[in-house]
Write a structure and sequence with these properties.
mainly alpha; about 45% helix; about 120 residues; three-stranded antiparallel beta sheet; 3 helices; about 5% strand; single chain
Length: about 120
């Protein structure tokens, strides 16, 4: 049987076809979308606050010539599942690296460079 023959000999063919066609698509409910919009609105507000805080701290880090050094491979005890990067001058990083046997060739990058994607 062809797909076009399914409702060939029944009454209200157009209604049945419309219902069958709509069953091929799954849509999120309006309630689900409203919850997602509310959740995303909260995330947006948090992100704006974080960005505002970063924008106020960024000039301080730049004025102090601080860079961010990824030392996550050298941290054994992550608190809260995160490893803070070292923030400081190149000289401070070299001192830390020598004291804790960290690769001194790790390149620093501008602070907050990787905060947002």
């Amino acid at each position: 049987m062809k797909n076009s023959d399914v409702f060939k000999n029944v009454d209200k063919k157009e209604v049945r076809e419309a219902i069958a066609d709509s069953l091929h698509h799954i849509y999120p409910s309006p309630e689900h979308i409203e919850k997602e919009i509310a959740r995303l609105q909260e995330e947006l507000e948090k992100s704006k606050k974080v960005k505002e805080k970063i924008e106020s701290l960024k000039p301080v880090a730049e004025a102090l010539n601080w860079k961010e050094y990824d030392i996550s491979d050298y941290i054994d005890n992550y608190s809260f599942g995160i490893s803070p990067n070292f923030i400081g001058t190149e000289e401070e990083f070299k001192k830390l690296a020598k004291e804790h046997n960290i690769n001194e060739n790790i390149q620093g990058c501008p602070v907050f460079k990787h905060t947002f994607y």
